Amino acid sequence: MLKSITACCAGLLLGLGSAGAAFAAPSTVTGHLRDSFCYLTMGAHGSGHHECAMACAKAGIPVLLEQNKTDKYFVLLPPKDKQALPAAVLDKMEDEVTVTGQEYTKGGMHFLTVESVK
Questions:
Q1: Among 9, 30, 71, 96, which residue has the least CB neighbours within 10 Å?
Q2: Which fold has domain 25-117?
Q3: For the whole model, what pTM was predicted?
Q4: What is the domain partition of the chain in residue ranges?
Q5: In the chain, what is the straight-line distance between the N-terminal and C-terminal CA atoms, in Å?
Q6: What Cα–Cα distance (Å) separates residue 35 from each residue in 62, 82, 92, 107?
Q7: 3-state secondary structure string across the chain
Q8: What tens digit of pLDDT does each residue of 21-34 get?
Q9: How far is the C-alpha of 115 from the C-alpha of 118, rounded, in Å?
C-alpha cells in the first residue's frame, strides 16, 4: 500500500512539473540580435555582419537574442502561430535591442515571443 501511494505521489509531482513547462512568463530582455547560423558556427557578429544577418533571418534562420552581461540566449518566436518575426527584428539584426514578450523554457532552451522591440 505504501509503495502505491509513493508511486502515485511521484507520478503527480512529475505531472505537475511537466505542466509547469507549458506556462509563459512576461519578460523584457535587452541584448544583441544574432543570426544563429553565422554566430554559432563561425562567431560572426557586429555591425559588419548586419547585412548577412538580415539575409539569414529573412531566409528563416532562427534569430537569437544574446542577453547582455550573461551567457543566456533566447530563440525569438513570432507573437502568434503562423506569423513571421516582426520587421523591426529583421531591420535591427546585430543591434542592441530590448524585446518584450512571453518567455518559455523547455529542454534547457530559452524562447521569447516578440511582442515589442525597442
A1: 71
A2: OB fold (Dihydrolipoamide Acetyltransferase, E2P) (2.40.50)
A3: 0.77
A4: 25-117
A5: 58
A6: 6, 20, 11, 21
A7: CHHHHHHHHHHHHHHHHHHHCCCCEEEEEEEEEEEHHHHHHHCCCCHHHHHHHHHHHHCCCCEEEEECCCCCEEEEECCCCCCCCCHHHHHCCCCEEEEEEEEEEECCEEEEECCEEC
A8: 557 889 999 999 99
A9: 10
